[in-house]
Amino acid sequence: MSALRIALLSYRGNPRSGGQGVYVRHLSRELTELGHQVEELAGPPYPDVDEGVRLTKLPGLDLFAEPNPFRTPKPRELRDLPSWVEFLGMRRGGFPEPLAFSLRAARHLAKRRAEFDIVHDNQGLGYGTLHCGLPATATVHHPIAVDRDLKLATVAGPEAERVKRWYGFVRMQHRVARRLPTLTVSQASRDAIAREMGVPHERIRVVPLAADTRVFKPRPEIARVPGRVVTTASADEPLKGLDRLLTAWAKVDGELIVVGKPKPDGPAARALADLGPDANVRFVSGLSDDELAHLIASAEIVCVPSLFEGFSLPAAEAMACGTPVVATTAGALPEVVGDAGILVPPADPDALADAISALLGDRRRRADLSAISLDAASTLNWRRTAEETANHYREILGQASNRERAEC
Predict the structure, then answer these.
(1) Structural domain boundaries of the chain?
(2) Pairing of strands 255-259, 228-232
(3) Identical topology for domains 5-210+382-407 and 228-377
(4) What H or E segment, with its residue span, contains residue 100?
(5) Cα 258 from Cα 89, distance rounded (Å)
């Protein structure tokens, strides 16, 4: 089969920004190893790319970046329409990055249409993606409306209005998704996209993700630390359920390590304050993949307390390391974890505490789950993800070619 020339759009593609960045890195690498030409067009924070993958940076104003978030740009920075969209959207309390990035990408691709066969947008779903002049598709990991609604359930009054303004871009994403062939990462996400975004089921293709088994793998040389539980919270938001796990921790005799940073005024910080200064909980951040894999291998349990997951790379990574998982039944977690872990209802701290405590006290059960985890993780790999994604591209290009012939 002929090689494809792919423009992969990633408005926030750094793998330390969350699972979407992990996705574009591994997908681009595997597509390249299959012989395709992949160029990532990315806004800040920029992605990590592997050998053979070309990176083209599309700088934005990056108005939410530390150490100076919500800054006022200098007049010389407001040189074009995307920059004004980004600035005015921020001043109005919204999150304009997806739209602004899509406009930059469309302007860039308009000059280079002959260099690509297809555009693949990763979750941005900005209006500009519809005007690249090339066949296009989009990956929707899960509808951001789920995040918005879970956040709105925790606030009221002026704060609720602020949340609605911030998530104003969701309406745009729904409109764009309804006009593009859609990829997603699980059956649960497929159902949520159809329900929340109005995309017909038959236009959504499921291509599961995987752990990077070059890094996340059994490490028998690393001793399990008795009582250690690890959880990953890339964002301190209600969606991740970290506050529920921290509430549960009052009933657990063990050590909890959270990979991530709590917001000073976020739900996790409030739950941590309720635990008191003697709680055996610590936060770590800035870990490399290898450091994270070592940490997971040292744990007796990995916990995924989310209220929704489109896939859950942390669960897949734990399974690839042979570390038992305690997770909720939210979203795709039953699909990913299956019999390789213990599943409890979401938003139920007591159920979480009981499941963690029982598993910490049952060495044989942990050994059984470890063996099941390794077997289940072996069925998922990034090469398969790339192969199925390339097949999706070819279907889109075939349909585009048929339309062109019909119009002649």
Answers:
(1) 5-210+382-407, 228-377
(2) parallel
(3) yes
(4) helix 97-110
(5) 33
> Which amino acid is located at 348 in the chain?
D
Q: Which two tokens stand for residue 117?
A: 């066969």
Residue 235: count other Cβ atoms within 10 Å of its Cβ.
Answer: 15
DSSP state for residue 133 in the 8-state scheme: S
Q: How far is CA 91 from the centre of its chain?
A: 26
pLDDT in tens, the chain (408 residues): 689 999 999 998 887 767 888 999 999 999 999 999 999 999 999 999 999 999 999 999 999 998 999 999 999 999 999 999 999 999 999 999 999 999 999 999 999 999 999 999 999 999 999 999 999 999 999 999 999 999 999 999 999 999 999 999 999 999 999 999 999 999 999 999 999 999 999 999 999 999 999 999 999 999 999 999 999 987 778 899 999 999 999 999 999 999 998 888 778 888 888 888 888 999 999 899 999 999 999 999 999 999 999 999 999 999 999 999 999 999 999 999 999 999 999 999 999 999 999 999 999 999 999 999 999 999 999 999 999 999 999 999 998 767 665 665
Under CATH, to which class is 228-377 assigned? Answer: alpha beta
The closest alpha carbon to 299, from 341, 339, 240, 345, belongs to 341
Contact 104, 128 (CB under 8 A): yes
Q: Is the entire prediction scored with pTM above 0.70?
A: yes
Closest Cα to residue 120, out of 207, 17, 19, 38? Answer: 38
- CATH number belonging to domain 5-210+382-407: 3.40.50.2000
Take residue 382 and report the two structure tokens written for it.
């990034």
